[in-house]
Description:
By secondary structure, the chain is an alpha/beta fold. Helix content is 29%, strand content 25%. The protein has two domains: 2-123 and 306-334, Medium-chain alcohol dehydrogenases, catalytic domain (Quinone Oxidoreductase, Chain A, domain 1, Alpha-Beta Complex); 130-275, Medium-chain alcohol dehydrogenases, catalytic domain (Quinone Oxidoreductase, Chain A, domain 1, Alpha-Beta Complex). β14 (308-312), α10 (316-324) and β15 (330-334) form a beta-alpha-beta unit. Keywords: NADP. This is NADPH:quinone reductase.
Amino acid sequence: MRAVVYSKPGPSSVLEVVERDLPEPGPGEVRVRLVRAGVNPTDWKFRANGMNGDFTEVAPGQDGAGVVDAVGEGVTTHAVGDRVWLVLAQSGRGLGTSTQHTVQLAERVVPLPEGASFDLGASLGVPAVTAHRALTAGETTARLAPGSMAGQTVLVAGGAGAVGNAAIQLAVWAGATVVTTVSGEEKADLARAAGAHHIVNYRTSDAAAEIRAVAPEGVDLVVEVALAQNVGLDVEVLRNRGTLAYYADNGGAEATVPVRATFAKNLRLQGLLLYTLGADLVQAAAEDVTAAVSAGALRVGAEAGVPLHHYPLEETGAAHDAVEGGAVGKVLLDIAEA
């Protein structure tokens, strides 16, 4: 099989196209013939910083979608021919999704609903599971379903990003009122296409005043990508006993928290990282995300605020560079014909 791998950390030039033996699934494992793979910031960061454990060769990529073509001993949840999407494909193993076939633990292989495209399936993983955890980090919402967030107002920082877009779509499906902050009109259009009800350009307006106009008592939950830059605004607009869920360190690795304002409102600051969520939260997210896909609530493409950028497998390096360069939308690897 053909794969794109690297054996040492560094820039995208360390990636190379190789031929490798077809891997066989062991007990509790499933082999997937990949059709699409998603590329995320975590992929180039792992590659650049050598964050891959003791593996001597790594095929990067956490997200993908394809068809099961072999199952290992004891697997009863999947069968050859099943359409699936993957979560945490390269976490704790060297063979991710920049390859024609990948072998995964059965619990990381999720049914892809009938009618959902492989483009969508490969776009779920990191963004949708991260967004799910952020939306369920508050005191009132343990799982997502239609109506589960009715009556709540959610602020999504950076609504044009991949996680932000998924958070908007999932929150709208769950019945929340969604406010999002953006930096310009192009990103405002993307957030609007995702379904955001209120869009605030933080560069040209008094963001706190605009958010308060929507939620006079404060928002219930903030989904935050840049805590260092936005913690002051977040604390100002959160309601008493609200939750600030943050999943990245965009804009700075350290944040100064307004202590009195935070404890005076009984706020919860909830950090989250996909790789350390635990199997229970990953499974819950996978189930809810799949339900949202079945309902048509999670979408990709420009019409959903997620422009797609396709690269052949052999150009995985260029795909990594596009993500590192801030490509707006979703970067995908085309591995096989759908």
